[in-house]
Amino acid sequence: MKGYIISQEILVFPKFLKINLKSFLVFNLLLAWLLFTLYIVQAGLFTQQIYLQKEYQKEISQLSKENEILEIEFAKSSSLSHIENYFQENSFVKTNPNRVKYIQIFEDSLATNK
Questions:
Q1: Residues 6+ away with beta carbon under 8 Å from 82
Q2: Confidence at 113, pLDDT banded by 50, 70, 90
Q3: Are 77 and 86 in contact (CB under 8 A)?
Q4: Chain segment 35-86, per-residue pLDDT in tens
Q5: What pLDDT, on a 0 to 100 scale, did the predictor assign at position 30?
Q6: Which of 33, 64, 92, 102 is placed for a possible disulfide with 87 were both Cys, Cβ 3.0 to 4.6 Å?
Q7: For residue 112, is it within any domain?
C-alpha cells in the first residue's frame, strides 16, 4: 500500500475577514430592528388601503343608488303627461305671448368699451 503525503503548501484555504463577534451581533440586531420596523409600517399602510377601499365602495354604492333615484325621477318628470302637473305644483303660470313686455335698454345707458 502506498501512502500519499499532502503538503500544506499545496492546499490553499480561503482567507475570511476577521470580524469581531460583538460588532457582528450588533449589526444583526440593527438589521432585525430595521426589518421589523419596516414590517410594522408596511402592515399599517396595508390596513389603511383596505379601509380606504371599503369607504370608497360604500360611497360608490350610495352614489349609484342616488343616481338610480334621479334617473327614475327624471323619467317621471320628463313624460309629457306629468309636465303639466309639475308646472301646477311648482306654481308656474301659463302666459300669453301678446302680454309679455320686454325691458328696453337704450345704447347710451350701457357702459361701452373704448
A1: 76
A2: low
A3: yes
A4: 999 999 999 999 999 999 999 999 999 999 999 998 888 887 667 667 777 7
A5: 97
A6: 92
A7: no
Q: How far is Cα 110 from Cα 113, in angstroms, rounded to an integer? A: 10
Report the amino acid identity of residue 104.
Answer: Q
Domain of 66? 48-88
The per-residue pLDDT for 33 is 98
Helix residue spans in 4-93 (DSSP H): 21-78, 80-89
Q: How many domains does the chain have?
A: 1
Which residue, 95, 90, 94, 64, is CA-closest to 77? 90
| Mean pLDDT computed over every residue of the chain | 82
The answer to whether position 73 is within a domain reads yes
One-letter amino acid of 81: S
Q: Look at the pTM and tell me if it is higher than 0.85.
A: no
Dihedral sign computed on CA atoms, order 103, 104, 110, 114: positive
Largest alpha-carbon pair distance within the chain?
A: 136
Q: Which residues contact 87 (CB under 8 A, 6 or more apart)?
A: 94
